[in-house]
């Protein structure tokens, strides 16, 4: 704690708001330029362009940044910077990731492309029209900026940098050391994050990690999240005849791998959306009383979501949304066999593929979860291989499925809602808001936050920042500008907290 | 019957063989040029290029051809020609189709493209190499020509035309009137064939239709087929959330349309490949004693197929292949929801689509079959729509599936194995072969042959011509050249039969 003249938190926040308001045009243009750089983790050349751009943004704010490397060929660099506050006793490190989910450009709405940011005066699927970027600060809060990572998670990166700018330019003192940590392969499973944390353990020492990522509460309220689900991607590939066969000449005799795959997948869940794999829920640690209470305090959003997404009957037999998200999940991310639509032909396909996403909660373990899945697959009569099967394997076993994990898999993480430094953060965020903010025990989504506990013995908490209807991970990703400005303000408020 | 000097059938066939052998290079080059013209039924410009090319081929053999139109915009013309033999009492009409199945070029093997015919010295997936087209008649029987429709069914078209040439140039008299009928939208479901048959009923009058299409018996034996299964394509489209959702933030609550679709599809068949839709097999007319006997005479091919396609456990609990193909079928032609592989993302998809192919046998009816399918879908709890659902429908019913038939659907057809004129054809084909030919009550595949019975009161029989491993309807379609030459010989033999 350093001695300083403190304005009441709300008054400070007004300063940040004012600064942001006066600089909207400049900030928006800089953000647009940032979004124009493709950022798929596998695209190493562009990943480095992003890293250099972030370095330049930090440099322009008087911060000298460096790239931290995992020393793994093809890995993405972490962009790191820090500012030491003389006399400060605490260190807060801000995290966001600059890489984005893969894109299928042809699925984007007309006029949009993932890496050509466009502004619209409303949501495009709701009468919004694409508009020119403005030449002044007359920028409406409800406008939307469309681009890959406009919300997930370049908003996080940009808000952290611009939040620092807002704090400094508003002449509000920091009173903790601040570190900046921008990852470039989160959407690829943060394969090298652990390596980086270990290698730069001393440099990264901090009292708390603040993760800026994910959507705010559906009600629009600001939100602090104390945990995340773990995540594991598994690909299933079922093998049929060695080549596609005419469905008339061989149908009823040659087994169809698409039918075998759908039977396998169908066996994994019941009609209420519960996973029917033996023991799937057995090791789940139930919510604590405090977590249950926090959840009960959060306004229900089920009706809003049902209307927004046109869902008649949600999974989970009417159980509350947040209760369901506290359970592990199994989701079909994608499935494909042969072709549909105008490319469809009367064939028995030779392969069928499904991508699964399994989310984990405290108590679950990725290895155990994978074994449960494999046991289930075997019980359905499948022969499991871990690489392309030989002709001999195909001839001697049937049906044959290749089961492979994709990217890295990791467990869930939760930080206690009682941690004092985390309470300060929550109070700073609350001070930016006239409504009660949401304190969420765990996000449905995933980040490899267990790494901070495991490798650095530091707790993370997550401050979610973007509009919930941002289409992250899909086509037409966007951010409503109000959420961008408020993200900057939230970061400035946290940075200037009394730790 | 006309009076003429008849050589024994085998001796006549030697003449055809000799003629074909001397003209291999010329014939192969002409066929290659024919295959170079794209022939997807929806590609009207190229369809007409095919029709004109066929007209030219007929013209070059002294036959004047005409295009028969269904007078339906976008329909493909039939190429028709005829030759009247003075004194002949019977008329035989030869049918083949010049359109091909849709192509997905990226799935073709390296070096191949659907409409750039390539020659290989063996099957490419079995050490074959692409070779130059020859400048002489030194052309090996085992070479393969790769291109869309190289077997299905431009071989049929070309063999009919070249077979006529072989008969005439060998100076063997025809003794029936011969008609030529080449369809251009069979793979699109022969939507307008009925219209054409009715409109040109008199012009198309004949005693027998000979359909040249489909693969010969797997044993390599020549084959005459007395029937076909009917066919119906149905698309199922299941609707999830109005837009793709983050699988972490909404997983366990938002229903996944891919999971709903796989559960629906899985409910349609058991693990032995039998269809579990109520009453699916109820109206099947069992095989006659004669048909059963014919089937029993055909050499078993199950072990060959299992080895060829690397199938460990065929559908149908070990029942004979031909017995299973005498039943109606339900096949998944293709399935897709969101993306797999490198394009996969952690999403709950917003739609999931499957294409089904239902084959029908005598006794089945397309309308009844569709109703059985729909009843089954309703029993699984789905709400069926026939066009894109409104938001209101989505909000009030769940799960929602659009069920639509694709192309035209038609019933099975069978011609009695006792029909005298058909017996002559069978005997002529037998005379080209040193092995016992296969007489098959019904092909597993489909052609709208019911139309000839229904509209023209004429019976059709099918002479299959291509190698069974031709990859028809899929990538890398090919014909082994021996089968091309033999197809020409078979046609010449049938054309010169004593009717």
Notes on the structure:
- The structure is a homodimer of 499-residue chains.
- Chain A is an alpha+beta fold and 499 residues long.
- Chain A has two domains: 9-228 and 413-495, Aminopeptidase (3-Layer(aba) Sandwich), CATH 3.40.630.10; 230-284 and 327-410, Alpha-Beta Plaits, CATH 3.30.70.360.
- Chain A is built from 15 helices and 21 strands.
- Chain A has helices spanning 9-22, 24-35, 44-60, 154-169, 193-199, 247-250, 257-266, 289-297, 302-309, 321-324, 366-379, 391-396, 420-431, 450-456, 481-495; strands spanning 66-68, 78-83, 91-97, 118-120, 130-131, 144-146, 177-183, 208-212, 223-225, 227-228, 230-239, 245-246, 329-338, 347-348, 351-360, 383-385, 400-410, 413-414, 438-440, 460-464, 478-480.
- In chain A, the strands form five sheets. Chain A has an eight-stranded mixed β-sheet. Chain A has a five-stranded mixed β-sheet with strand order 13-15-11-17-16.
- In chain A, strand 16, helix 12 and strand 17 (400-410) form a beta-alpha-beta unit.
- In chain A, helix 1 crosses helix 4 (154-169), helix 1 crosses helix 15 and helix 4 (154-169) packs across helix 15.
- The longest helix of chain A is centred in the N-terminal third of the chain and has 17 residues, at 44-60.
- The radius of gyration of chain A is 24 Å and the shape is globular.
- Mean pLDDT of chain A is 94; it is low at 1-6.
- At the A-B interface, strand 11, strand 12, helix 6, helix 7 and helix 9 of A face strand 11, strand 12, helix 6, helix 7 and helix 9 of B.
- Strand 13 (329-338) of chain A pairs antiparallel with strand 13 of chain B.
